[in-house]
UniProtKB/TrEMBL annotation:
<dbReference type="InterPro" id="IPR001226">
    <property type="entry name" value="Flavodoxin_CS"/>
</dbReference>
<dbReference type="GO" id="GO:0010181">
    <property type="term" value="F:FMN binding"/>
</dbReference>
<protein>
    <submittedName>
        <fullName>Flavodoxin</fullName>
    </submittedName>
</protein>
<dbReference type="InterPro" id="IPR029039">
    <property type="entry name" value="Flavoprotein-like_sf"/>
</dbReference>
<dbReference type="GO" id="GO:0009055">
    <property type="term" value="F:electron transfer activity"/>
</dbReference>
<dbReference type="InterPro" id="IPR008254">
    <property type="entry name" value="Flavodoxin/NO_synth"/>
</dbReference>
<feature type="domain" description="Flavodoxin-like">
    <location>
        <begin position="3"/>
        <end position="142"/>
    </location>
</feature>
Length: 149
């Protein structure tokens, strides 16, 4: 199984979560910045996890641009999941849900509910339990992948 955790980040918090998830998913998984990554680079990848900071209730522009480049059916046969990092606020928005819908529209099978991980301020750091929650979320994805292999 080849998996990619594609992410964008301004201050490093989303990269940290992406690396935790990639580490939990195990060998064959890379955490890759979205900058310079194009849909054609998905050739040979079975599992795609996408993560973004929430910026203005949505994912970042590079993540949105990547998703806009996915044509319907281009992710047929791909298993996928999405996460975001966010501040604790009742109006934080839901980038992970929007990413997840875009992946599904492109044909991917979503293997885990979209997940948000908290930062304690715009620049971070991550909330104390964010790494543990990311590990648990990735472990769930791993178990789903094994169950449906
Ligand atoms: C311009 C800007 C807009 C933001 N908008 C939101 C928002 O709408 N909802 C939210 O929960 N967090 C918002 N945040 C906080 C980011 O989600 C936080 O900076 C991010 O999780 C940090 O991740 P990073 O270190 O990977 O960039 C915003 C931050 C910035 C700088």
């Amino acid at each position: 199984m080849r998996a990619t955790v594609l992410y964008d980040t301004h201050y490093g918090n989303t990269r940290t979560i992406a690396e935790v998830i990639a580490g939990e998913l195990g060998s064959g998984t890379t955490a890759t910045p979205v900058t310079g990554f194009f849909p054609g680079a998905l050739e040979g990848i079975d599992v795609l996890v996408i993560g973004s900071p929430i910026v203005g209730w949505n994912s970042t522009e590079p993540i949105q641009a990547f998703l806009a480049g996915l044509t319907p059916g281009s992710l047929d046969g791909m298993r996928a999941a999405a996460f975001d990092t966010r501040v604790k606020h009742f109006l934080h928005g839901d980038a992970a849900g929007k990413i997840s819908h875009a992946l599904q529209r492109a044909g991917a099978t979503i293997v885990a509910h979209p997940q948000g991980f908290l930062v304690t301020g715009s620049r971070g750091p991550l909330a104390a339990d964010a790494r543990r929650k990311a590990t648990a979320w990735a472990a769930f994805i791993g178990s789903e992948l094994r169950a449906t292999a």
